[in-house]
Design goal:
This protein has about 160 residues and is α+β, with helices and mostly antiparallel strands. The chain has one domain (about 5-130). The protein contains 5 helices and 7 strands, in the order E-H-E-H-E-E-E-H-E-E-H-H. The protein has helices spanning about 10-15, 30, 90-100, 120-130, 145-150; strands at about 5, 15-25, 40-50, 55-70, 75-90, 105-110, 115. The strands form 2 sheets. Strands 2-3-4-5-6 form a 5-stranded mixed sheet.
Length: about 160
Amino acid sequence: MNAFVIDAFDFCRINGSREGVTPVAEMTRLIKDCADSSGSLAWRIDGGTSKLGYPQLTLSVTGTVQLECQRCLSPYAYDIDASTILVLAKDDEHADEIEEIINDESIDVIVGSRTMDGAALIEDEALLALPQVPKHEVCPDSALLDSATTEKKLPFAGLKDFKPE
């Protein structure tokens, strides 16, 4: 993926905004979890300030990727629609302090940078939006699954019919 570097603190200070569309084929880490490289993801990064005065990035990613169903092993389209708020801290110690103050599990606190890779943030958000175990709601060809789950006959089950009288 074509990297773009932002000064995260300045980006937040000026209420910066950047958006685009990136092909899945350009996301080297994401493609490892996909069935193929088709599709693209639309993304948006907005800078701003939290209610408590901390710099924050609002990141959203939407689009469709092809995943491999873990039940039937066929590909299927998975829709990503993810959004997150990233509060920026100067260092790890400052991040811990901010987490204690805001005490909100829905907001992530990360260490910001003057040379932050926006493309990596987008790919991270897409990866976090993927299911742990990708699978269809209902597999399209369940005949294989049905045959695997039907009751198997035991090899010596027929011997019970040959009982001596």
